[in-house]
From TrEMBL:
Membrane-protein topology: Single-pass type IV membrane protein
Protein name: t-SNARE coiled-coil homology domain-containing protein
Source organism per UniProt: Salpingoeca rosetta (strain ATCC 50818 / BSB-021)
InterPro entries on file: SNARE (IPR010989), Syntaxin-6/10/61_N (IPR015260), T_SNARE_dom (IPR000727)
Listed transmembrane segments: 228-246
Coiled coil: 12-67
Length: 247
């Protein structure tokens, strides 16, 4: 499985965001395409901006495709499974298809056809809508575009919040595991302390028993010395009596 620090995922997220922005800009461009003339300044600016974004995304996809191609030649070196490589290829192909749709929609041929149509309409004076109707249509289109942009922005914010919540959940899981490990280690240390306490108690009991035996031994020894002294004194007295009587 690929690491969460794999630069592929950073570039992938950038490409996804860039494509999403380009699609929103293309939706706005489409509304302008039907409501404004090809010579409109804002329409021209939006067209150039959209083409620039598409070209930038193409470069990012080329770099991404090259890194995937290198990884496919040595998948074990990069610790990537065939399933992961297949998913990356699928993402690149899907992104290319989205870009192709954007490029086809903003092709020079389509813009040129619009210019020619607008010129014919101006020359023939056959505008489909009156001046006020056209203005109202443009206002409605802009309002709808604003609403669409707001909805898409809210969706992006919600996706970002979901990602942040997932990261917080992962962090909490790590902290929980650390807490469990610390608790287990404290339990082991408590068990060791209890064993040491039991050993110290047992040793103390044996020491007290030994001291009692030693006291009894010393007491017996003291009593024996007193008995010897008494015997010697009695023997001496008997000898003196015998000596005295023999005289």
């Amino acid at each position: 499985m690929a690491s969460s620090t794999d630069p592929y995922f950073v570039v992938k997220e950038e490409v996804e965001n860039s494509i999403a922005n380009a699609e929103r800009l293309y939706a706005r461009w489409q509304r302008m395409f039907t409501s404004r003339s090809a010579d409109d300044a804002e329409f021209k600016h939006t067209t150039e901006q959209l083409k620039t974004n598409i070209k930038s995304i193409e470069w990012d996809l080329e770099d991404l495709a090259e890194t995937v191609s290198i990884a496919m030649r040595e998948p074990h070196k990069f610790n990537l499974s065939q399933s992961e490589l297949s998913n990356r290829n699928d993402f690149i192909e899907t992104s290319k298809q989205k870009l192709k749709a954007l490029k086809d929609g903003t092709s020079d041929a389509r813009i040129k056809a619009k210019q020619e149509k607008d010129q014919r309409s101006d020359l023939m004076g056959r505008s489909k809508y009156s001046r006020y109707e056209k203005l109202e249509r443009e206002i409605q289109a802009e309002n709808q575009g604003f609403i669409d942009d707001q909805q898409q922005s809210q969706q992006m914010v919600m996706r970002e919040q979901d990602t942040q919540l997932q990261e917080v959940g992962q962090t909490i899981g790590v902290l929980k595991n650390m807490g469990i490990m610390i608790g287990d280690e404290l339990d082991e240390q408590n068990d060791m302390l209890e064993e040491m306490d039991e050993e110290m108690t047992s040793t103390s009991d044996r020491l007290r028993g030994t001291l009692k035996k030693l006291d009894r031994t010393l007491a017996i020894t003291r009593d024996g010395k007193q008995s010897c002294c008494i015997c010697l004194l009695l023997l001496t007295l008997i000898v003196l009596i015998i000596v005295y009587v023999s005289k």
